[in-house]
Amino acid sequence: MKNWQQVFEDWWHKNSSDDASHDLGHFRRVYKIALHIAAQEPEESDPLVLMAAAYFHDVVNPPKNSDLRSKASTLSAEKAAEILTDIDFPQEKISGVQHAIAAHSFSAAIPAETIEAKIIQDADRMESLGAMGAARTMYVSGRLGRSLFHADDPLAENGRALDDKEYGLDHFALKLMKLPAMMQTESGRKLAAARAAYLEDFRAQLAKEISAEF
After folding, report:
1. Is residue 196 a contact partner of residue 179, using CB atoms and an 8 Å limit?
2. Residues 6+ apart with CB under 8 A from 60
3. CA dist 40 to 70, 79, 182, Å?
4. Which of 5, 75, 77, 201 makes an SS bond possible with 98, Cβ 3.0 to 4.6 Å?
5. Domains of the chain, start order
6. pLDDT value at position 9?
């Protein structure tokens, strides 16, 4: 039997991205999180569909500030189908992989209709929470030339409007803290809640250090 994970990783070694927030490590983690969620869900999922969707969900990855961003998951689904066909992936599973990829995106707003799509969506969103979420958010902000935080009012407690196009830390409150309520699976919600609690603590601690409070 073909070792599909090795095949996928070999493909990425030949087609690597310069975006460290969407690198092979990200795809490996999404796959592991997907397996963790799938093992706890009562509905059976297809592990090969989960693997392929996890490895290729961001194969087309426009910058966060690109006009193509809302189409990225659909474009990734189309590209993934081409790749999987070229490497002789089971044809009958490709449509399931495509749907899981297309539905994973926050900005695409495509309903997840299969258990695999729900799991992949939750697994990918988990990477936006916890310590990894904090690291990836600040990394992306730096790549886009945005400030990491508002120096005088980091938590927007003194009347300014949150603006994550200007400040990386604002993205936590505007989007990331809302993710636990949006999780599709029960196991995903539990894991997301724990990771969101870490992000809340991180925001508070960072605000204290910005103002040099002790």
Report:
1. yes
2. 72, 75, 76, 78, 79
3. 31, 30, 18
4. 77
5. 1-114 (1.10.3210.50), 128-214 (1.10.3210.50)
6. 96
Q: Which residue has the higher pLDDT, 102 or 107?
A: 102
Q: Which residue has the tokens 């407690």?
A: 157
Q: Within 13 Å, how many C-alpha atoms sit on residue 187's CB side?
A: 17
Residue 110 amino acid letter: I
Q: Could you give the CA distance from residue 162 to residue 41 in angstroms, rounded to a whole number?
A: 36
The span from the CA of 140 to the CA of 157, in Å, is 24
Residue 153 in this model has a pLDDT that exceeds 70: yes
Residues contacting 120, CB < 8 A, separation 6+: 30, 34, 50, 53, 54, 57, 100, 101, 103, 104, 112
Task: Give residue 146's pLDDT band: very low, low, confident or very high (50, 70, 90).
Answer: very high
